[in-house]
Structures are given as C-alpha cells and as structure tokens.
C-alpha cells in the first residue's frame, strides 16, 4: 500500500525518506497542503508500467490495422491533414482577438 508523506517531510528529510518508503517496491504519495499531488515510485516499477503502456498501445495499433482503421498517405498529404485543424483554429483565434480589439 502506498505511503503518504507531506511536502514538508520531503523538504526536511530529502531523498532518504523516499529511499526508505519505496524500499518495498511501493510508491510514495506526496501531499501538498493536505492534497495528494505527486507519486514517486521505484525506477523498476516505473519501467514496468511504461512497458505495459507501450504494449497496450501496440495492441491497440494492431487492432486498428486489422479493423482497417488507418490512413495510407504521403508525407505531404499527412502534414496537410494534421495541420488543417490547426489552420482553422488559428483563424478562429485571430478573428476572436480582432473582435475584442
């Protein structure tokens, strides 16, 4: 189970409190002004979670390919497609700023 420490404890005790509290392969929650704000975990656990995340992304990609949910296009076509929304967004922002000037 995760141990909770305060930001002040971390400030006064430094890294040693993190080493102590994460020694059992558990994460430490750092509370700031009474609210849980950060999580610190051993590097091995982080690497494992990152691997899980990447594996899930790979499985999702394979599923999308199998279901035909992908686009085949040139680099130029891709750039135009992904920036089209940004161009419209920038135009809207410009018009909004102009209206308030």
Describe it.
The protein folds into two domains: 3-42, 3-Layer(aba) Sandwich (YefM-like fold); 71-101. A hairpin with a 2-residue loop joins strand 2 and strand 3. The protein has helices at residues 7-13, 15-21, 43-66, 75-100, and strands at 3-6, 28-32, 35-40. The protein is flat. The mean pLDDT is 88. It is 63% helix and 15% strand. Strands 1-2-3 form a three-stranded mixed beta sheet. It is of the alpha+beta class.
Itemize the secondary structure elements and their pairings:
Layout: E1 3-6, H1 7-13, H2 15-21, E2 28-32, E3 35-40, H3 43-66, H4 75-100
Parallel strand pairs: 1-2
Antiparallel strand pairs: 2-3
In short:
By secondary structure, the protein is of the alpha+beta class.
End-to-end C-alpha gap: 55 Å
Which bin fits the share of residues in helices?
55-70%
Rg? 23 Å
Overall average residue pLDDT: 88
Number of H/I helices: 4
What's the arrangement of strands in the largest beta sheet? Answer: 1-2-3
- What is the fold-level CATH name, i.e. the topology of the largest domain? YefM-like fold
CATH architecture of the largest domain: 3-Layer(aba) Sandwich
The overall strand count is 3
Strand fraction: 5-15%
- Write down the overall geometry: flat
Highlighted features:
101 residues; alpha+beta; YefM-like fold; 2 domains; 15% strand
